[in-house]
Amino acid sequence: MLKALFFDMDDTLCDTQSANQKAIDWLLSELAQFDFFDHKTFVSQYLAAIYRELDEALKKMTDAIHDESDYRHFVFDYFLKKHGVEERDELMSYVALFDAKRIEYYDFYSGVKDMLITLRKDYTLVLITNGPAYSQVPKVEQVQMSNYCDYVLIGGLEPEQKPAKSIFDKACQLANCSSSEAIHVGDSLSSDIKGAKAAGIKSFWIKPEFTEFSSENSESDYVADSVLHLDKVLELENNHHE
Asked: In terms of pTM, does the model score above 0.85?
């Protein structure tokens, strides 16, 4: 019998891609006024750096920077230098402004809040999100996640992130359930699906290009293009245990 539901946040419960794109469009519009450098290439490089897509030289330069804000300011300044921008002080304020815009636009997918409110009546809900506290705590606060989930686990604040078994074990402890009494829902094959499987937890893979709900999938127990298909998962699971 299922007792708990575990959820990833970005691109599972919340429309991270739309929020990011709106913030990117805003940044591009803002930087367009500075016509002395290729701002489109610059933004592309900076975004790659945020997701740690670095060449070896930049990786060595940033390995010792552990504070996320310091890291983002460093790479922002680094790429401005690469583009030959000499007067950089005015532009550096866009690091914080861009992050603030990403949070401002951040929200649940339509229908998710009502779904969580309904599910919480019958299950313990645990959010398990990867990422640094610098970005994930503001997101959690922006959508008031504590109003919809019983517990929130942020990978950057834990000893290990998904796919590590330890963070799934902690979710089970918080929910007072065994691994067989939970399902984890997420969009990342490597972090969410394989991580849950290694922890002995069934999984529901949110895969945008998968247009139909299915319980026949080699990687996960269930797959669909939206978390809103979770009602079908629960129907199958509950019928199985009757």
From this structure: yes
Residue that terminates a domain, selected from 104, 137, 172: 104
List strand residue ranges (DSSP E) for the chain, in order: 4-7, 124-129, 151-154, 182-186, 202-206, 222-224
Q: Which of 5, 18, 19 is nearest to 142 (CA)?
A: 19
Split into its structural domains, the chain has a count of 2
pLDDT band at 241 (very low <50, low <70, confident <90, very high): low
Note down the domain range covering 164. Answer: 4-16+107-241
The residue type found at 162 is: K
* 3-class secondary-structure state, position 179: helix
Q: How far apart are CA 115 and CA 136, in angstroms?
A: 22
Kindly write down the DSSP assignment for every residue of 108-127, as one continuous string. BPTTHHHHHHHHTTTSEEEE
Beta bridge partners of 14: 10, 108
